[in-house]
């Protein structure tokens, strides 16, 4: 195993073996995928209690993915803790100062801290190679369907709008008055579906992903857990952190990820795309859409 990504490698194994796990072992695996930081500091009894399964379930799960037992399974996570993460003491002091400013200041600190943490956690779990692979598939396909409902509908449309300044094959779905499965009716193996949903997962997105796989589309999944049905059924899966002190899932890291993905698509595209983006904005200036700076 690569010493710098040992725990990530274990998580990848769990994802690959997911369908072969028993329902109880899947509960254990889901807990590990969603709480990897707990593994290195928990005994088998402690983590089994947290996951609401028996300790033997964790032992069997560990063996099924190639380890001798739970202690062997836990070792890569303990190594990740030993290596430690980059600390930001100045940022921590800044957030504490905000928190001391009063009741609303405390809420502000919680929201700012969650947003920064979500961005860091999201990009810490994604590498450039994975992004480039997804970007190349998107660039080389016939049509790109970007699916999001609820708050993610706005995220999908924003991504499609930005992409459409230089490329023609991007479509945000569901279209007004339509459904995701109807919008995918004529899509096939030449096309890509980018689908996003966070807990509680939307059934129409899950069903659209299943249909897309049946029709041969390449699926790029964006969700908040490695155990999400969107990630498990994706050809290219990306986990975004969406925690927030408020009642709604945060879109901060989703938007940041989509902007980064689009930048990779542009990077692997032809020179013609850059020329199209320039012509697009020149046209806007000519039509008076932008307010010109006073001379």
TrEMBL record:
InterPro entries according to UniProt: Homeodomain-like_sf (IPR009057), HTH_RpiR (IPR000281), RpiR-like (IPR047640), RpiR-like_SIS (IPR035472), SIS_dom (IPR001347), SIS_dom_sf (IPR046348), WH-like_DNA-bd_sf (IPR036388)
Coiled coil: none
Stored Pfam families: HTH_6 (PF01418), SIS (PF01380)
Source organism superkingdom: Bacteria
Keywords for this protein: DNA-binding, Transcription, Transcription regulation
Keyword Kinase in annotation: no
Domain SIS: from-to ranges: 134-271
Domain HTH rpiR-type: 8-84
Keyword presence, Transcription: yes
Protein known as: Silent information regulator protein Sir2
Organism: Ruegeria marisrubri
Lineage of origin: Bacteria, Pseudomonadati, Pseudomonadota, Alphaproteobacteria, Rhodobacterales
